[in-house]
């Protein structure tokens, strides 16, 4: 943020429901007992990982039927999907909502966080890779026979069994299928974004749904995004669920390679042993505090601020070891909220168990609390009892701090062997040896707690919490925390509650109240009167207290002006959420962009492809798709694809010029990371300035599958010994002499190739989906917080939505957002073909012959700023993002829904000051199926068919040229719409021979047309050229973006 006076605090966000699932604590009551006693935790199952034992959640029983999951799909669900459904149920039950209680508002978002792949994803990849291994086995058998002359093992009595390579291949594939499972629903069951979609469907939540990953800062990103959308009035409630599973041996091995793994978590900085990995899940239900009070909710605690920053350091990922960024994050939170640091009585630390990181953590806290009286700040860490739950670590800490505020008890630090021994650098800090009553301050100010942390990729976080204050609803839960009992499926405790809202229910007259007005209302995000001049500069609405939201002592403006609050927040640090103004629908400028897709090495080449009149789809090269193993033309067979077509992109072999990345390190990155870094170089080149010219704080949000191909490959490598054990048990090789068997297995490994080593310090870096964003920030030295976003095929627009909300909240001054994925590979073709999603020929959107999509690789990224900031800096503005709407069908995971898609489009228009009839071009999702095309055009007609049009709406899709680029699809659509606006040209679609008869009457009613030739785009009298971009994903995930040209107020 730009320098200025300390702002007034924004509205607090209330935590009205929580849940906890940990190996030693199944529910809030057990968690609080664990956190407040010094007794050893009860024995739970563990898994030997060859680097130590990981505490597990394998014995948690989940009743799938209660969530409406069909049995056929349940068998293909990742274990984490089941556990997160249960965590969500318990959280909603704890809040008195959900299936057992009242109803949540329709505008309830679901954001989940997790890190690394899911067990189903690993199983699918191993089964697909195993098919190639089985083929290599068959070839190796024949080679062995030809080299040795061995036809089969003798039994010593003159008989010989014939070695049969093809039979060994068939037998091994059968073994893998039995052990790993195989179903048409495997693709849906392995996706991280299916988790929020299933939660939305189970509880009929129709807000935005997405999954995020930012290594062990994942929880803080989930919370930050929730606060953004709540304060912007884009949601009335947010359910945040964050979990970590230790699937297989990859995570502990990769942590060990970085020197971050320990058998037990010892938080003494002198131990320098790292942390013990563990599984864990938790959930928070969040509302604006005024809404929670109006609804009579019990409030555990209120989130006053959640500041994220980034300590960018090139090279392999590692925790920040400097105290400055941590201190600045905390100072930003206290300055923004006006809460004196002296008001904080408890700090929940990360507790790394590694010397340099622990020193940095406590040096930052010592500087923050310098001069405070002795023993006034208690320190603790959930990690001393829970271990390091990685993605979930932040939520575990927030839950602990919220429970401490709720119970008004300071939790103790474990003592004895393996205990947390946090260093005490300054007199204010102390370590409670037993639970202590948390006494109120002498001036009657509310209790405050803080959560401080930093992540492996460089992110620093500081969350400031306040206790639930007097005047709110009577606590209706047991003093122990009273969660829904998790001792068995279907068990729940806590009294039933009345409904906390209905369809479209908003917070009344409170800040951000109500749902948005009708289409074209030009309303601010808070839901007020039409705001003039939305196309020009920023529109901000001052925060006013709503009903029942009295100003809390110690949190008002001026209360933090004492000597213990930093007069400034340090260079490059924003003020978090506490900007003191309501973010209006401020236009967001695109000041740089880049892209690489099939047939196009850059964004200019992409536009030439769009005007070329022909697609870039063709047979995949053998190095990408082994037809002998995976191709079964014309037939649907599990493990095979009936098509071999795609639109691939060559993965860059060298780092972009100017980046000091060693060749071997660049080669060790995931292909998506390499492609993202390359496209980012084009973004900065088009921006016209070096990355260091970007001022302030930023965000890098990249749409991506949260399970990368390198991770899957390394996991397969860890399973080669298991595959070889399977080979030893094959009947087709029974009795083969040991020497011959060893020779055979060696031949197979040589043919199969080495998948790579997990035992190098950079292995984990290449497995993180957020690694693409983190590499971009770190290697360019940007103070930009990285995150990966998965929302199925809408991932790119979901990432854009995250970035736009960060900019509008004032939490970021610039953003890089977009998407990347490379689905032209056997795994994606096989899994999508098994569900019948692929076209037998090639994708033909809106055509009568449409029968599915064709996969394509690609990446597009965009550099964004607030329009006023871009103009102030003299940036060239290539286009202006006006709004992003999002919604979930809350119905089928696979079949699209007209109302759900239309809801997302309406939400976009609710944020702007123009009507749908003023949009000339619609960049469609263009799924390429009869049903999908019919639903999309019907949904478009619901919104774009209103009002009087001067000319038909022009509809097209990039997919007709490039295929479906999965997580990059929305970015491809936005790039096409942006280029169309820039070049004043309406782009065509290809592969449209006969318009589907389902579409013609609907198109006529809008009116609209799907053009097959490019056409000039005339300037609109009195306004800019405008386009809409749709992106819809599996799980009923719907996003719609509105973009316009920058006329600089001249039209």
TrEMBL record:
What are the boundaries of the region Disordered? 469-570
Residue ranges of the Ketosynthase family 3 (KS3) domain? 10-467, 585-1045
Q: Which Pfam families is this protein grouped with?
A: ketoacyl-synt, Ketoacyl-synt_C
Q: Name one process (GO BP) from the record.
A: fatty acid biosynthetic process
Q: Where is the composition biased (Low complexity)?
A: 479-500, 522-533
User: What protein name does the entry list?
Assistant: Ketosynthase family 3 (KS3) domain-containing protein
What InterPro entries does UniProt report for this protein, alphabetically? Ketoacyl_synth_C, Ketoacyl_synth_N, PKS_Beta-ketoAc_synthase_dom, PKS_NRPS_Biosynth_Enz, Thiolase-like
Against PANTHER family, the record matches this protein to: FATTY ACID SYNTHASE, INACTIVE PHENOLPHTHIOCEROL SYNTHESIS POLYKETIDE SYNTHASE TYPE I PKS1-RELATED
What SUPFAM superfamilies has UniProt attached to this entry?
Thiolase-like
| Similarity annotation | Belongs to the thiolase-like superfamily. Beta-ketoacyl-ACP synthases family.
Which residue windows does the record flag with biased composition (Gly residues)? 501-521
Q: Which domain of life is it from?
A: Bacteria
Q: Which organism is the protein's source?
A: Streptomyces naganishii JCM 4654
Q: What keywords would UniProt list here?
A: Multifunctional enzyme, Transferase
Q: Does the keyword Transferase apply?
A: yes
This entry's Gene Ontology molecular function terms read:
fatty acid synthase activity
């Amino acid at each position: 943020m730009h320098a200025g006076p300390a702002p007034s605090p924004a509205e607090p966000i209330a935590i009205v429901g929580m849940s906890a699932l940990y190996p030693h604590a199944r529910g809030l009551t057990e968690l609080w007992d664990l956190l407040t006693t010094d007794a050893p935790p009860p024995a739970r199952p563990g898994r030997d990982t060859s680097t130590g034992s990981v505490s597990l959640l394998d014995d948690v029983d989940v009743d799938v039927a209660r969530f409406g999951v069909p049995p056929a799909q349940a068998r293909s669900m990742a274990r984490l999907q089941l556990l997160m459904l249960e965590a969500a149920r318990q959280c909603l039950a704890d809040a008195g909502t959900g299936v057992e209680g009242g109803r949540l508002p329709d505008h309830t978002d679901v954001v989940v966080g997790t890190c690394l792949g899911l067990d189903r994803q690993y199983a699918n990849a191993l089964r697909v890779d195993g098919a190639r291994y089985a083929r290599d086995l068959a070839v190796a058998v024949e080679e062995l026979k030809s080299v040795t002359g061995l036809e089969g093992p003798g039994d010593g009595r003159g008989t010989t069994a014939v070695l049969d390579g093809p039979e060994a291949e068939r037998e091994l594939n059968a073994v893998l299928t039995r052990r790993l499972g195989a179903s048409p629903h495997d693709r849906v069951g392995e996706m991280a974004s299916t988790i929020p979609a299933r939660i939305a469907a189970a509880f009929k939540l129709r807000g935005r749904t997405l999954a995020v990953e930012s290594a062990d800062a994942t929880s803080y990103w989930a919370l930050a995004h929730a606060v953004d959308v709540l304060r912007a009035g884009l949601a009335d409630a947010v359910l945040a669920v964050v979990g970590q599973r230790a699937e297989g041996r990859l995570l502990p091995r990769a942590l060990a390679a970085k020197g971050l793994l320990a058998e037990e978590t010892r938080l003494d900085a002198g131990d320098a042993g790292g942390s013990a990995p563990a599984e864990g899940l938790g959930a928070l239900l969040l509302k604006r505090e005024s809404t929670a009070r109006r609804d009579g909710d019990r409030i555990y605690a209120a989130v006053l601020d959640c500041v994220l920053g980034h300590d960018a350091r090139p090279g392999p990922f590692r925790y920040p070891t400097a105290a400055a960024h941590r201190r600045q994050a905390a100072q930003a939170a206290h300055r923004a909220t006006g809460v004196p640091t002296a008001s904080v009585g408890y700090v929940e630390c990360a507790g790394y168990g590694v010397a340099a990181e622990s020193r940095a953590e406590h040096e930052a806290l010592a500087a923050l609390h310098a001069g405070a009286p002795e023993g006034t700040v208690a320190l603790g860490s959930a990690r001393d009892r829970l271990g390091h739950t990685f993605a979930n670590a932040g939520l575990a800490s927030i839950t602990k701090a919220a429970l401490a505020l709720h119970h008004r008890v300071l939790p103790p630090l474990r003592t004895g062997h393996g205990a947390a021994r946090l260093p005490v650098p300054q007199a204010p800090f102390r370590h409670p040896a037993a639970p202590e009553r948390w006494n109120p301050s002498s001036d009657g100010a509310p209790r405050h707690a803080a959560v401080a942390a930093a992540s492996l990729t460089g992110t620093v976080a500081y969350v400031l919490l306040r206790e639930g204050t007097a005047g709110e609803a009577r606590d209706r839960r047991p003093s122990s925390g009273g969660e829904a009992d998790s001792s068995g499926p279907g068990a729940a405790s806590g009294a039933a509650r009345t409904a906390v809202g209905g369809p479209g229910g908003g917070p009344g007259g409170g800040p951000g109240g109500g749902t948005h007005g009708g289409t074209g209302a030009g309303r601010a995000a808070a839901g007020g009167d039409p705001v003039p001049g939305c196309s020009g500069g920023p529109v901000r609405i001052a925060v006013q207290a709503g009903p029942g939201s009295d100003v809390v002592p110690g949190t008002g403006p001026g209360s933090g002006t004492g000597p213990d609050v930093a007069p400034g927040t340090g260079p490059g640090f924003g003020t978090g959420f506490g900007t003191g103004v309501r973010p209006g629908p401020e236009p967001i400028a695109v000041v740089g962009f880049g892209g690489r897709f099939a047939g196009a090495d850059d964004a200019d080449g992409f536009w030439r492809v769009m005007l070329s009149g022909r697609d870039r789809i063709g047979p995949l090269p053998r190095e990408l798709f082994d037809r002998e193993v995976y191709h079964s033309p014309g037939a649907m067979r599990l493990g095979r694809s009936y098509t071999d077509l795609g639109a691939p992109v060559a993965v860059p072999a060298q780092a972009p010029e100017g980046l000091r990345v060693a060749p071997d390190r660049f080669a060790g990155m995931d292909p998506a990371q390499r492609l993202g870094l390359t496209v980012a170089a084009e973004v900065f080149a088009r921006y016209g300035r070096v990355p260091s010219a970007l001022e302030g704080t930023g965000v890098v949000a990249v749409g991506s599958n949260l399970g990368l191909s390198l991770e899957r490959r390394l996991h397969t490598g860890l399973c080669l010994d298991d595959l070889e054990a399977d080979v030893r048990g094959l009947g087709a090789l029974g009795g083969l002499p040991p020497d011959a068997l060893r020779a055979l297995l060696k031949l197979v490994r040589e043919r199969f190739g080495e998948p790579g080593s997990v035992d190098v310090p950079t292995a984990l870096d290449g497995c993180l989906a957020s690694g693409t964003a983190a590499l971009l920030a770190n290697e360019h030295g940007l103070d930009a917080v990285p995150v990966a976003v998965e929302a199925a095929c809408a991932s790119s627009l979901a990432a854009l939505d995250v970035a736009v909300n960060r900019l509008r909240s004032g939490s970021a001054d610039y953003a890089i957002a977009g998407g990347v994925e490379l689905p032209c590979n056997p795994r994606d073709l096989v899994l999508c073909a098994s569900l019948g999603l692929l076209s037998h020929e090639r994708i033909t959107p809106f055509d009568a012959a449409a029968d599915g999509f064709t996969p394509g690789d690609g990446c597009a990224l965009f550099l964004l700023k607030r329009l006023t900031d871009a103009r102030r800096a003299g940036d060239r503005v290539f286009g202006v993002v006006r709004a992003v709407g999002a919604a979930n069908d809350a119905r089928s995971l696979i079949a699209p829904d007209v109302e759900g898609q239309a809801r997302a489009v309406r939400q976009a228009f609710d944020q702007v000051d123009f009507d749908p009839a003023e949009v000339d071009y619609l960049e469609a999702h263009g799924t390429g199926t009869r049903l999908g095309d019919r639903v999309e055009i019907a949904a478009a007609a619901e919104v774009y068919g209103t009002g009087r049009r001067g000319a038909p709406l022009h509809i097209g899709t990039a997919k007709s040229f490039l295929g479906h680029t999965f997580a990059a699809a929305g970015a491809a659509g936005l790039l096409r719409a942006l280029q169309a606006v820039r070049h004043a040209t309406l782009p065509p679609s290809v592969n449209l021979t006969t318009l589907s008869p389902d579409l013609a009457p609907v198109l006529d009613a809008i009116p609209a047309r799907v053009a097959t030739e490019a056409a000039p785009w005339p300037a609109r009298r009195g306004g800019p050229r405008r386009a809409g971009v749709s992106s819809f994903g599996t799980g009923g995930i719907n996003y719609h973006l509105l973009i316009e040209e920058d006329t600089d107020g001249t039209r």
